[in-house]
Design goal:
heterodimer; A: Ubiquitin-like (UB roll); N-terminal domain of TfIIb; 5 domains; six-stranded mixed beta sheet; 28 helices; 18% strand; globular; B: alpha/beta; Glutaredoxin; Ubiquitin-like (UB roll); 4 domains; five-stranded mixed beta sheet; ubiquinone (chain A); Molybdopterin-dependent oxidoreductase (chain A); 4Fe-4S (chain A)
């Protein structure tokens, strides 16, 4: 069996790989067997029976579903006999009796264009124009493939169900559903959300949500996986719902560092009309998330900036590139290096980052350059210093085989969504999850141990876990003995971490610390997902140190399904760091640039603004800071609060309009490909910077193509050595070339560092009240009311604010009071009924539903909404009684 | 020193002799669903209070139903002299009179009673002896051996009548392999419908060395007209429990589940009590009867689903999922419940096992036919004079069962049609009545013993209307997973509806056959694969009648079916 099974399909010798079914083996050989319920990378279901074949083995002949049946050795499989084809036709004929099929039977089918409005040839509910997937429908292809005679005597019944278009982003029309259950299964066995289910049975079996609830409360994460797998027009993206694609291009999503490979569909007008997760994507394995699946549309927006603008007399007027460059030359030129700053786009390609870094260094001669979303600089820099890479040590999908997981101060299901998919899979398959986070997140629902320490004491807690591991002799002694540098120093330092003290200073019971330690240490492979939410730079560095020490003593470095995964933001933050688009010596990082602008020390800046929003959690002070500048150049795809104060605005090409490369969290360098040509005067980031550089007299900026830039990158950046566009074509390569797991070389050493108790304990906050907002996909234990004031559903449920009794007492509040959580500058962050179940003095929590966020994002009136996804940021707050006129239970602001 | 089982037997013997050999009379009221539906509870209470008020020396027990359902509620009285007199269709109001006359005066009401048994040989009045009545004489009671005699909730009564000796023998004298061989040699075929040799099935599971293995007992029993699984569990649950433990021992399994459909209230209660009693007696749990064998058992319920009776759907149901069938392979013996090696057997199959182990395979093999040993537990209902549950040896003809056991047609002139083996099996016409009851002969006739239900229809039954009812049932109960069953049943029902309303076209028959054959070849599980059976068999025996519906020749009024058939409510959205 290990070598596979040899059998015959239609007389051809076929070897099935171990575990393959007849259908899979046939697909590998390009032998077509129709199927509808099967879908690659999902478990077979065996319900549509369109894949029936005849198998003759051991002298017996039988009809079997090829999707579920493994081949028997020496079996003869027939896929095309009259009997087999007849059976398939009959099955599909049955299916078509409940599916509108005017698109197949109408005699005008050859005459009508796909978008023609038909008024007379088939019944209203049956015509092809009612189906958004007309001519891009898998069912239709199957019907044609089985050569169904559509003059069926079977009665056709339309279900006449209302279409669900009251939830964000996608429509559900169950009149077109064939109940193949792909959507239900992908939601369950791939995404682990189980937001969808099969309903009822017999002739009325259908797909829906449990009890017919709105998606907002069903646990839907709006990842669109169900839409991607639907073979009919039943599930469709709402925007561009009716658009037909003329081409498909594999490209990469530029919203977060996972770097999901996507298939962009482009219509005949050159608009990107659909994003589908690419099954072949190494980083995403066919998955995407709400922002990736639905956030691509800004590239099509009619308000896109088409040409340069220069400010004259206080207003921006249309200009030519030459005029704009002239203006920039005088605006940026002649300034001291300290006055200048370059902010690169988090979506900016490696080429953009490289050319920008070169421009800053050689033309502006400034060290003030950073990527806009490099707020996790401390985390990544420390990782880089300690492990040689401010990136994941292991591939993302390694996580699916992890046996234990430790997630610290991060919310990957929202911020690095697809990275959480294999993590959730591991948990479904028995891995134990430990979450260290004061906030309630989606992953805390899956956690075996959820530790909610005092904010800031995360590193101390991790060190406490390491201490337990040493105490109980659970460390990987062989790894510690042979692969660690300075192990003794670490051990010595950990003796000062008395567990009673750790427990006191973190606010976590020592029994729970012990349980967490055992979970992590006793599994075969444990991975650490490391975020820095709510941590100061110092605390983030300590968390890195403590985590690396923990991974090292448990032997989880250099091991498959182990390793450390930083949870940072910005699609190409890693690429920017690799390319040197980070602060040089004495240079300002993004936060310091903003303060420098505010103080007037920084006077002129170039901002590459694609994906930069003043509403991003870490960039809220950017618009005001930019206002102070003497001179601002912004390269942007869209007008925004960033361009408002610019002296020159340059039209930027989007992800769809360029060939370039990005580097994701697992160090995978992937290609962005042109899906739609720029329509006006837009330039890519590197073209823009090169044009400015050339205008300012820089040399070495004469690149013809992005590939030329990359060739220089491969020469200059050692980790990229050996890479070129040709090699990257087939799905991306991890740097250093072909090292998927760092430290897998048995001879390599991991240096651990001694930890200082006082340093770790001092990073814990004390005194002030910290608001730690939570958000989950569903809270089945709580009632949810969904209201539908007009066409859309809204979550409207009673809010609870978790407070510690001591804090309530200090604020003069009682349990059950309607209270509000207020920031120093008067923002109300949450309002609701006070419940006394905060685990720590000083910690205030409130958990909302992801559905509320999805609605908000869906309704946001900006084309490029994904940078505005609010994180679950911590705030220093005060508590007060909600004003009486406020209705109890009103939703939070 | 006595063994744990000998202790148990001694206690049982004592209990039984108290009931049957002491100075007290023993009044037994037939319970079970059949008895209780006919009012046995009230009768039982009436006898208890009558005994109290008259002060006679008698025990009153609610015991298992005898199976002669046309006689419910049934009461029998065992006098201290050993004669047992049977009263049928007893009314609560009669209790006092019977107690006074029969017990106090010692004068059985021979005009009210229908039979007697035992005694000193002199008989009771002119009453026939119970065993001489054809519906009793023709039976060979193995699985139903204790029916009418013992209290199903009293483990000791079961033990006193030979219960658990087979288990004791199996655990102390036989290896698991020997039991599997014995069951194989007995020729025991699965009674769930597929008739697969039980011993062979067990031998698939036995060799697996997995640390956790399951044996399941299937009492979904959703077939209209079938009540023998429920009957066995509610009337003699220990025979099943014992059979399942032996099944567990023979296959070296660790856990047993008795799977019962929600709504079968009495069997659920009965099985739970029996399992609890078996635990208490050391017959379940750790080190059963002091041996090395440990085995746990529990009752598992599913919701209202017929397809949950399909073996893999049943496993899904036990796992708490939507009960839809899995595809095979993998087969249950490799990966069944919770993906562990699993065997699943029908209630009836397992209920034969104790007697096979006790009496040997030769004995069992001697009953029945060459290819089907043992008995068939037939449930007669419909237009039949003596509806009830009868255990007859395999090989008896259908006609014998209908005429001799069932007493022929109850109303009307003749028996026209039989629905045998549940709604997924065939309709039989008179031409088939000489068929032997035997798996292979029935199958050749186009029907099946299936669940054992036989619904009898007289000449007033319209076959197309009956088919519509059956297909409506199948359509309603389709789980909706695989397309041919979900859609095929819906279309078959629609066509039959048309036929019933005189709206059918001549091409509809061919369409019906096309849909039916697609279902047979293309469906995932038996529900769809067998869904065309009723129509296929009806075409064989009632072809002309069916064709007349196509020609518009039926029912001058245009529509037949008097509205009594209630179509399931959810056939269409």
């Amino acid at each position: 069996m290990a070598d596979g099974t040899t059998f015959k399909i239609d007389g051809r010798d076929v070897v099935a790989k171990p575990g393959q079914t007849i259908l899979q083996a046939a697909m590998d050989q390009d032998i077509y067997i129709p199927y509808l319920c099967y879908y690659p990378k999902m478990k077979p279901q065996g319900s549509c029976r369109a894949c029936m074949v005849e198998v003759e083995a051991n002298g017996r002949k039988m009809m079997v579903a090829s999707c579920t049946t493994p081949p028997m050795p020496e079996a003869e499989v027939t896929t095309n006999s009259e009997e087999v084809e007849g059976l398939r036709r009959n099955v599909v004929e049955l299916l078509m009796s409940e599916h509108p099929h005017g698109c197949l039977t109408c005699h005008r089918i050859e005459l009508c264009g796909p978008q023609d409005i038909c008024q007379r040839h088939v019944t209203v509910t049956d015509r092809c124009t009612i189906c958004p997937k007309n001519e891009r429908c898998e069912l239709k292809d199957t019907v044609r493939a089985v050569e169904l005679d559509l003059r069926t005597p079977l009665n056709y019944h339309r279900r006449d169900l209302p279409i669900h278009s009251d939830d964000p982003f996608y429509d559900r029309d169950y009149n077109l559903c064939i109940v193949c259950s792909r959507c239900v299964r992908v939601c369950d066995e791939v995404r682990f959300d189980t937001a969808l289910t099969l309903t009822s049975r017999s002739g009325v079996a259908l797909v829906g949500t449990s009890h017919g609830t709105s998606l907002l409360e069903s646990g839907c994460e709006f990842c669109g996986a169900c839409v991607d797998v639907c073979p009919t027009g039943s599930l469709t993206e709402r925007n561009y719902k009716w658009e037909k694609a003329v081409s498909e291009v594999a490209t990469v999503c530029t919203n977060c560092p996972v770097g999901c490979q996507m298939i962009a569909e482009v219509n005949k007008f050159g608009k990107v009309v659909r994003f589908k997760a690419d099954l072949a994507g190494a980083a995403n394995n066919g998955q995407a998330c709400m922002t990736g699946k639905f956030g691509y549309e800004y590239t099509n927006d009619s308000s896109r900036l088409k040409r340069p603008y220069v400010r004259e007399g206080g207003i921006l007027r249309k200009a030519t590139w030459d005029e704009a460059l002239e203006k920039i030359k005088s605006g940026l030129g002649g300034r001291s290096s300290e006055e200048l700053a370059v902010i690169t786009s988090p979506r900016g390609s490696n080429e953009d980052q490289y050319v920008a870094a070169k421009f800053a260094k050689s033309v502006l001669k400034t060290a003030n350059i950073d990527s806009a979303l490099n707020a996790d600089n401390a985390l990544l820099s420390r990782l880089e210093a300690r492990l040689g890479a401010g990136a994941a040590t292991n591939p993302i999908w390694d996580l699916e085989n992890s046996k234990s997981l430790l997630v610290v101060a991060g919310n990957p299901t929202e911020e690095q969504n697809v990275l959480a998919v294999p993590a959730k899979k591991a948990v479904r398959e028995g891995a134990k999850l430990v979450v260290i986070d004061s906030r309630e997140t989606e992953l805390t629902r899956y956690a075996t141990e959820w530790l909610r320490p005092k904010p800031g004491s995360e590193a101390l807690l991790i060190a406490g876990i390491s201490r337990v591991i040493l105490d109980e002799a659970l460390e990987d002694k062989e790894f510690v003995g042979s692969r660690l540098d300075q192990a003794e120093e670490l051990k010595q330092s950990l003796w000062t971490f008395d567990l009673a003290k750790v427990s006191r200073d973190t606010g976590i019971e020592d029994a729970q610390i012990r349980r967490a330690a055992r979970i992590f240490a006793e599994s075969d492979a444990g991975a650490i997902l490391l975020g820095d939410d709510g941590l100061t730079d110092k605390a983030a560095e300590l968390v890195v140190d403590a985590s690396i020490d923990l991974a090292a003593i448990t032997g989880n470095l250099g091991k498959a399904s182990g390793g450390i995964f930083p949870l940072y933001r910005g699609a190409n933050t890693l690429g920017a760091r690799d390319m040197g688009a980070t602060p040089g010596e004495n240079g300002r990082d993004i936060a310091e640039m903003m303060s420098g602008m505010t103080s007037g020390d920084v006077k002129a800046a170039l901002v590459m603004a694609d994906g930069v929003s003043g509403y991003s959690p870490t960039l809220s002070s950017l618009p005001a800071a930019l206002e102070n500048l003497d001179f601002l150049v912004v390269s942007a795809a869209l007008d925004s609060e960033i361009t408002h104060h610019a002296n020159v605005v340059l039209p930027a090409a989007t992800y769809a309009e360029q060939n370039s490369s990005l580097t994701n969290v697992e160090r995978r360098v992937q290609l962005l490909r042109i899906t739609a040509e720029p329509k006006h005067e837009e330039k890519t980031g590197w073209e823009t910077v090169a044009a400015i550089a050339n205008a300012m007299g820089g040399t070495g900026f004469d690149y013809a193509t992005a590939s030329d830039v990359f060739t220089e990158i491969a020469q200059e950046v050692s980790n990229y050595s050996g890479l070129n566009y040709e090699r990257l074509q087939s799905g991306g390569i991890q740097w250093p070339v072909d090292s998927s797991i760092l430290f897998s070389d048995e001879a390599s050493k991991v240096t651990v560092v001694a930890l200082n108790y006082d340093e770790l304990a001092n990073s814990a906050e004390s005194g002030s009240l910290t608001f730690a907002p939570g958000r989950v996909l569903s809270q089945p234990e709580r009632d949810v009311v969904v209201r539908k004031p007009a066409d859309m559903n809204y979550v409207d449920r009673e809010q609870f604010v978790q407070v510690h009794p001591d804090d309530a007492k200090s604020a003069g509040l009682n349990e059950g009071d309607v209270i509000q959580v207020k920031t120093d500058d008067g923002h109300i962050l949450a309002r609701g009924k006070a419940v006394f179940d905060s685990p720590q003095v000083g910690l205030v929590g409130a958990t909302t539903l992801f559905g509320e966020l999805a609605t908000k994002m869906h309704e946001l009136d900006v084309a490029d909404w994904t940078p505005q996804m609010p994180g679950l940021g911590y705030s220093t707050v005060t508590l007060e009684s909600a004003p009486v006129e406020q209705e109890a239970g009103a939703a939070a602001d | 020193m006595s063994t744990p089982f000998e202790d148990l037997q001694a206690r049982a013997a004592k209990r039984w002799s108290e009931l049957t050999e002491g100075e007290s009379a023993w009044i037994r009221v037939g319970g079970g669903t059949s008895g209780q539906a006919a009012g046995a509870d009230a009768v039982f209470e009436a006898f208890k209070s009558s005994v109290e008020s008259t002060g006679v020396n008698a025990n009153v027990s609610m015991v298992s139903a005898m199976g002669l359902m046309y006689l419910e509620p049934q009461v029998d009285i065992l006098m201290p002299n050993g004669a047992r007199v049977y009263y049928g269709n007893v009314n609560a109001d009669e209790a006092k009179e019977i107690v006074e006359q029969h017990l106090k005066e010692g004068k059985p009401l021979t005009d009210r009673a229908y039979a007697y048994s035992g005694g000193d040989g002199s008989g009771v009045g002119n009453l026939p002896e119970l065993d001489s009545m054809p519906m009793v004489a023709l039976q060979k009671r193995i699985a139903t051996r204790n029916f009418g005699d013992t209290d199903p909730h009293d483990l000791l009564q079961y033990v006193a009548n030979g219960g658990y000796t087979a288990l004791n023998r199996a655990l102390t004298e036989m290896t698991p392999e020997e039991i599997v061989d014995e069951v194989k040699a007995a020729g025991l075929r699965g009674r769930g419908g597929a008739a697969f040799p039980a011993g062979v099935k067990w031998s698939f599971l036995a060799p697996s060395k997995a640390p956790v293995k399951y044996v399941l007992c299937n009492c979904e029993e959703g077939d209209p007209g079938a009540f023998n699984d429920k009957g066995i569990i509610e009337n003699d649950p220990h025979t099943l429990v014992e059979g399942l433990i032996i099944n567990g021992y023979a296959t070296r399994s660790t856990h047993g589940y008795v799977f019962i459909r929600t709504g079968h209230e009495l069997p659920i209660e009965s099985a739970r009590k029996a399992i609890a009693a078996a635990y208490e007696a050391g017959l379940l749990g750790k080190n059963i009867l002091g041996t090395d064998f440990s085995f746990d058992m529990e009752v598992s319920l599913t919701g209202d689903s017929y397809v949950a009776g399909e073996e893999t759907a049943l496993m899904e149901a036990i796992e708490g999922k939507r009960s839809t069938p899995r595809f095979k392979p993998p087969f249950p013996a490799a990966a069944g419940l919770w993906q562990k090696p699993t065997n699943i057997n029908n209630v009836k199959t397992l209920s034969y096992v104790p007697e096979i182990v006790r009496n040997g395979s030769d004995w069992f093999k001697s009953i029945g036919t060459e290819t089907t040993s043992g008995t068939a537990i037939v449930c007669l209902s419909g237009h039949i004079t003596y509806p009830g549950m009868y255990e007859v040896p395999m090989g008896m003809t259908i006609r014998e069962v209908l005429e001799k056991v069932g007493g022929g047609v109850s109303v009307g002139e003749r028996i026209k049609v039989l629905q045998a083996g549940g709604p997924l099996n065939g309709l039989l016409g008179e031409d088939a009545f000489d068929t032997m009851i035997d798996f292979d002969a029935m199958s050749a006739a186009g029907a099946s013993i299936g669940s054992g239900g036989i619904i009898v229809g007289n000449e007033t039954v319209n076959v197309v209307d009956l088919l519509r009812s059956l297909v409506a049932f199948n359509q309603f109960e389709s789980c909706g997973k695989c397309f041919p069953c979900r859609l095929g049943n819906t279309h078959m029902l629609e066509i039959l509806d048309r036929m019933c309303q005189n709206k059918a076209k001549s091409a509809d028959l061919a369409l019906l056959e096309r849909v039916g054959t697609s279902m047979k070849a293309g469906s995932l599980c038996g529900h769809g694969q067998l869904g065309f059976n009723p129509i296929a068999s009806a075409l064989k025996y009632f072809g002309d009648e069916i064709k007349s519906c196509l020609a518009g020749e039926i029912a001058p009024g245009g529509v037949f079916g008097d509205g009594t058939m209630i179509l399931p409510t959810r056939t269409r959205p």
